[in-house]
Amino acid sequence: MKDLKAKGRAAAGALASLTMIASMSAVPALAAQPADADGVADDAREVAGENAAVTATVKARAEGVFAYDQDAVTPNAVIKAVFQKATRVLCGAGIPVAVENPLNWQISVSGAVNDAFTASVDELAGDESVQQKMTCTCGGNPAGGRAIVTADVKGVPVEAVLARAGVQPGANAVTFVAADGTETMLPLGYVIGRHAVISYEINEEDLSASVGGNNQLWMTRTPANYFVRDVVEIVVSAEDEAPAAPGEADEHPNSPNAGVLAGAQE
C-alpha cells in the first residue's frame, strides 16, 4: 500500500514537472524525461501538446479592397488650423504682412538677367497664371502625420517670370527674398523642374484664408520650409557651385509622405 502511494506521488510529481515544462516552452520536448509510472509519459505529452496548441500563433488570410483619392482637396479651414500654428518653421517666413489687395503686391526680378524689372502679381499673372493641385508638407512630418495638405493652387510660374527677365548664360541659382528678410537660395534647374509658382490663391481664396500672407512659393516634391511667403524679390545668380537641392543631404527623405489618417471597415 505504501509502495503504491509512493508510486502515485512519483507519477503525479513527474506529470506536474512535465506539464510545467510544456506550458513554459510550448514545445513537447519530452525525450529526456523519465516515465516513473505506466502511462505518465503519454499523458504528459498529451498535456504538452494541448499547451502548444493554445500558445501557437493563429494565421488567417485577410482579403479586402484598399482605395485612395489623389484628387481630394484639403479645406482652407483645415489648412489654416494646421499650418498657421507653425508658420516660421513650415513656410520659411515670419509674421505675414497683410495688404488689402494681394494682387497689387510688387515683386522685383534682378541679378544675372538681361532685363531686370518690378511688377505687381496681377501684372505677372496675365495669361501666364496656372492652377494645379499641389501638396504642402512639413519635412519632418512622419508617414501618416497630419502636417500635410493638398490644395488647388493658383499662381504665376517662376519659369515664366524668369523668361520675361531673360536669364543669362551660366546662371545656376535663384534666391527668393521675403518681406521679412528671409532668403532661400535654390538650384535654378530644381526650381524649374519642380514647377515652382508664386501662388496668390489657395482653393479659389486669397492666401489669408489658408496658409496666410499675400503670396507664397510652392513647388512639387519639396518640404514646406522652402515655401517662402510674401516674396518681394527674385534674384538670379551664377554661383561657383550650385546650391544643394532640398532633401539632397537627408539620409531618409520622407517622399512622397503619405499615410492613412482614417478608414472604415465593411
Describe the protein's architecture and organization.
The chain has about 270 residues and is of the alpha+beta class. The chain has two domains: about 1-55, no CATH class; about 75-235, Alpha-Beta Complex (Sulfite Oxidase, Chain A, domain 2), CATH 3.90.420. It is about 25% helix and about 20% strand. The protein contains seven helices and ten strands. The protein has a five-stranded mixed sheet with strand order 2-1-10-5-6. Strands 3, 4, 7, 8 and 9 form a five-stranded antiparallel sheet that branches. A hairpin with a 5-residue loop joins strand 1 (about 105-110) and strand 2 (about 115-120). The longest helix is centred in the first third of the chain and has 24 residues, at about 1-25. The two termini are about 65 Å apart.
